[in-house]
Amino acid sequence: MIELLYGIAIAVIALGLGRWLLRLAGCAFDSLAEELSFSLGLGLGALGLVIMALGFSHLLYAPTLYALMALAGVVGCRELIGLAGRGQGRIRGVQIPWKSFYFWLGVLICFGVLLNLLRALTPAHGATDPLAYHLALPKIYLQKHHLSFEPTINGALYPANVGMLFVLGIALHGAALAQLLHYGMGLGCLVFIAVFCRRFLDLRAGIWAVAIFASLPVAVFFGPLGYIDVGVCFYQFLAAWALFNWLEKPQRAMLVLAGVMTGLALGAKHSVLPMWGVCAILVAGRGLVRREGVGTGVRELVVFAAVSLALAAPWYIRSFVESGNPVWPIANHVFNGFPYYSVYGGGAGEANAPVAASAGWLPSFERLSEQLYWVGMSLWKWSFSPTDLQRAIGPYIASLLPCLLLYARTRRPLFLLAFCAVNYALLVLVVGGVPRYSLFLFALLSALAGFAAERLVAGRMRRVRGVLQGAFLMTVAFNLVWNYGLAEASIDYFKQGRTEGQFLLEREGNYRVFQAVNKQLPADSHVLLQGIVKGYYCDKTYLWDHPYQRVINYGDYAEPRQLAERMRELGISHIVRMIRVPDSRVRLGYPQYFADEFHESFRKQYLQLLYRDESYVLFAVKYPEGKV
Amino acid sequence: MGEAAVVSATDEGDEVGAEGASHPRESAAFAGEAVLWLWVLGALGHYYHRMGFTDFILGLFK
Fold it and tell me: Tell me, what's the ipTM?
């Protein structure tokens, strides 16, 4: 629970730092809540960028990060005192009667938020991606004290603005703090949605919208884990918000802020690129629509593009320098980058994407029909028959959006709807059709759905509004039941007061073997993980043998001797192997090691068993010429 | 804030059912809203029924 104090301290420091930066930029806001929202976003973004700079400078040490936080605290201290003074009087003025529907909706939202908080505070376990790379790479960076390139690990060169905050969390108090930071960014999104709605739609719509976004299965499930997608949503939402502010009131400082937030988002995930394009078109188009001349549009576009691209560029330049591909390993066949089984354009990503990349420049009629089908049907499928949790968006958006046919009659909701429609089409056609990659869109759609719900209960049938409000409350309560199910392990963990080690021994399959690795092996050991990608709990340096990487591929060697030579070249001293590789991974290309003739022959000649449990074994590699 | 303030808090005064609307138009709008109510309640019901909450609730009374 000490992570909570760390998390609050980081948020407060970020708030002060962000407010200081906003004051320097001269941004003016509609309300204190809006100012606080952007202060938090900018502050966390700035911390992430400084940590990235420390990483490039080989200065990633825990003491350096503590010093950074202290310095940021000093810089923002005066701003915090000012903010506290301004906020005090306003909070006292807020009163929500307990009989109100909105009060009880707020109570249910709080329950959900608390259940997720417990999950965020639980030791990192279970889900693959965080323990394989979202949290594992920041831990490796801290061990090596710089942003190293790990060519076997998926995502090794992805832009990592959210990952830099995970570096901070892991350095200060371990993976649970990193999870808490991600969860905190989700909490920030809920506040942003409410404030955004108050600014552009209305506050009550905002409360509906918060409940809708807080109930999205994809956000509920992934928010408290060490993924990055809610963090990306955090920056993207602020980027869209700043852009809308600028479109309504074109001040240069707000345009720069929109550029900064878009740059922070673009430096957090590749999937932001299409949204960047939409924003750039809006920036360039505003001058033309208002008949301010082409020159104005070009100047504004240059400002927006320069700021956003400059902030994101270090990640893409790093990727290009390390691998020859700025978006490695995506589109690797285009850039001819460091060998890797390309995720898009002939890779595994296609299996997940409803619409794969076009074979030629001009799509065929069948292809166009397929694309139209997916654009038309995706929202429905994500709502009512999602194939997995990363596509599950719950029922509210699809059920409430049609109401906009009746209620979206003014400029703001119509513009918001059009912006969402374009981003939705891009998500389906370009970003692989996975809502998890574009959560900001669902935050904006939640705002629209909230607006529709509020209009519906305040419309001509308002006398029976209790029916809809009651039904909605009941469904939110149902969501809490599911949420409780997800949080059950965490509740037990805190109730029973078990240690992190005990919990992980029960819950994380490879934790035991990695404990053996960490305790038994010499400090300079270099471990090959066979059939395993979740390397977070391995404290020694390691590499994957994932079929997509091109560093060590068993098919390249005709005899065990050749494989041993390659392992020797790579300095591999030990192997951690999964005893029975699941069928899904075998289909991916992993060998079933103990049933594979080549690997059995290799084992008999070169491997010595050091440890085994029911699922994993640890071998030492015995080279004929002696030590590596 | 009272319930009456809900609509007026929204932007640019496009209040539903503004004065002067003709009766047939008003009836059509009412019918439209009624359809939307049914649609929303039906969609929510469909989703939570598929999620197994009908059985869950019935199970509570057994």
Answer: 0.83
